[in-house]
Design a protein that fits this description.
- By secondary structure, the protein is α+β, with helices and mostly antiparallel strands.
- The protein has 24 helices and 11 strands.
- The chain has helices at residues 3-6, 10-19, 59-64, 90-99, 102-105, 108-114, 119-130, 134-152, 157-163, 169-180, 184-190, 213-221, 273-283, 290-297, 303-309, 321-330, 336-350, 369-374, 384-399, 410-417, 425-435, 447-454, 462-468, 476-489, and strands spanning 29-32, 37-39, 53-56, 68-69, 200-206, 229-231, 235-241, 246-253, 260-266, 352-353, 364-365.
- The chain has a 5-stranded antiparallel beta sheet with strand order 5-9-8-7-6.
- Helix 9 (157-163) packs across helix 10 and helix 20 (410-417) crosses helix 21.
- The relative contact order is 0.09.
């Protein structure tokens, strides 16, 4: 696959540009030769003549060609291209590592080594697919994030430089001026700040529509841990950070129907801002391409009507991999509500209490692996085998036997986790699904998925389910979410007797 394969056809790009189609936001960028500016396809500025337009697969490619970002449509708000992050390709894993900041303090050779490539191979891969080198992708990401902070917050420029990963304001000023031909202070003077007073920052997190935020909140609400998370009718809030500098955040829909979520961040360290935004984009699945996913899922006759009814359903990931892994182990073969009760006991006993609660329900940090490796878990009401698995998992994480490294393939990740006592394929794939946000993870032993896909009171075996879902790779995780949501919406109402069935980790 080359860069030409990553771009929609020129005819499709032209129609999307002229119609300002939000479905193509982030899938390509429009560069205007006469102005030296590049835009999102939905830019509200008057459309330039076709002969003055070039199309690029990424913002980094447009900037590498000498274009600078539009101040009206703000390319920094565009969601990432889901096409780059499909499955376990080396490009997908490399981009995830760059998102995690691997190039912020380490050389390109380190990134290449983690992907088992030479530097030359890695550069060629990026140039062929994205039209820019890994270093250019990393640099564009930092500068666009800095541009967003300059536009939307009142943070001092020195802090913005640190937040975007620059070692000093001098280096930041030089890089910004070189790339955008405008000084950071001058850009701030042109901007009307939308939020960010005192210790509170407000940022816009863009996505590609449709997006079912209500379903996302509904999923998270049933699993919210008292003391750490709080989910109401319109927002998700949680404690973040560590005991040295804790903070909290709230995510809600952006007003006026904009294709974005609203992040309100309180008290977090400036140097953690980009990491927090990256985690939230994964957690709320903001870079997904719903039309590309729906096209593949619709190949299955059972999934096709579900996708048609709920095209904006996203993959709800978690804030932290270890937190999700603990939930997964506790949730083995019991209901969601029972797992939530047991996990809440664990949080109350081993979680780190804040000196002063931020708000009712936001007063603790999730337990550390060290706390569970050394703690007495037997008094929590867990089965003895579950407690032993939690201890073994915490120790394995501390010793490096398992991890949440995003460069691992799904098969390698699952294989490492199932070596632990008490961890089977269901648990390993559930951790990949919600801990990593892996789009192709498939907990094939899940009873709800087996029954929902078969229909008519029947049930597929795990082997049969894997074979059937081979046709919808690399989006099997989205099929799981669709089936869980369907089962949840058709579950017996409170007060009505449900048919007896073996307990399972119903709906994740």
């Amino acid at each position: 696959m080359t860069i030409d394969d990553m771009l929609p056809s020129s005819e499709v790009c032209e129609r999307a540009r002229l119609s300002r189609d939000p479905r193509f936001d982030g899938r390509f960028f429009t560069a205007v030769v006469s102005t030296g500016i590049y835009c999102r396809p939905m830019c509200p500025a008057p459309a330039p003549k076709a002969e003055n337009v070039s199309y690029y697969a990424s913002a980094a490619a447009a900037e590498a060609a000498g274009y600078r970002p539009c101040l009206r449509c703000r390319p920094e708000l565009a969601p990432g291209s889901g096409a780059w992050r499909r499955g376990d390709s080396r490009l997908a894993r490399a981009l995830k590592l760059i998102d995690e900041g691997v190039l912020a303090e380490r050389p390109l050779a380190h990134l290449a080594e983690r992907l088992s490539l030479s530097e030359r191979q890695l550069r060629r891969l990026f140039v062929e697919r994205l039209g820019a080198t890994p270093s250019q992708v990393h640099g564009t990401r930092r500068l666009l994030f800095a541009k967003q902070l300059l536009t939307e917050t009142r943070l001092p420029i020195t802090e913005i430089a640190l937040a975007a990963g620059f070692g000093s304001q001098r280096r930041f000023n030089a890089a910004f001026l070189d790339a955008y031909r405008i000084a950071p202070r001058e850009l701030r003077g042109r901007s009307r700040v939308a939020g960010g007073a005192g210790t509170t920052l407000t940022l816009r997190l863009g996505y590609r529509p449709p997006y079912d935020f209500e379903a996302m909140l509904d999923f998270l609400r049933g699993r919210a841990l008292p003391g750490i998370e709080r989910v109401d009718a319109s927002s998700y809030a949680r404690v973040v950070g560590d005991l040295q500098q804790p903070g909290w955040l709230r995510v809600s829909a952006w007003p006026d129907g904009a294709h974005a979520l609203r992040l309100e961040l309180h008290g977090a360290a400036t140097t953690k801002l980009l990491e927090i935004v990256t985690r939230l984009r994964r957690m709320f699945d903001l870079d997904a391409d719903p039309y590309a996913i729906a096209e593949v899922l619709s190949r299955d006759p059972r999934l096709a009507p579900l996708v048609e009814r709920r095209p904006g359903l996203r993959l709800p990931s978690g804030w932290d991999g270890f937190e999700i892994a603990v939930r997964a182990v506790i949730g083995q073969r019991i209901s969601v509500s029972a797992a939530r009760t047991l996990t809440s006991r664990l949080v109350q006993r081993f979680g780190i209490a804040l000196a002063e609660p931020f708000a009712p329900g936001l007063e603790r940090l999730f337990p550390t692996p060290e706390a569970l490796a050394e703690g007495d878990l037997d008094a929590l009401g867990l089965a003895r085998a579950r407690a032993a698995t939690l201890r073994a998992m915490a120790v394995a994480l501390l010793e490096g036997q398992v991890d949440f490294r995003v460069e691992r393939s799904l098969e390698e990740f699952a294989a490492r986790w199932v070596r632990l006592p008490g961890i089977g394929p269901w648990t390993a794939h559930y951790i990949a699904l919600r801990g990593l946000g892996h789009p192709d993870a498939l907990p094939a032993e899940d009873l709800v998925v087996q029954r929902s896909i078969a229909g008519a009171g029947d049930r597929l075996t795990a082997k049969a389910l894997i074979a059937r879902f081979e046709a919808i790779r690399p989006w099997r995780g989205y099929a799981v979410i669709q089936l869980w949501r369907e089962a949840q919406l058709h579950a017996p109402k409170p007060g009505r007797r449900a048919p007896k069935q073996r307990p399972s980790a119903v709906s994740g």
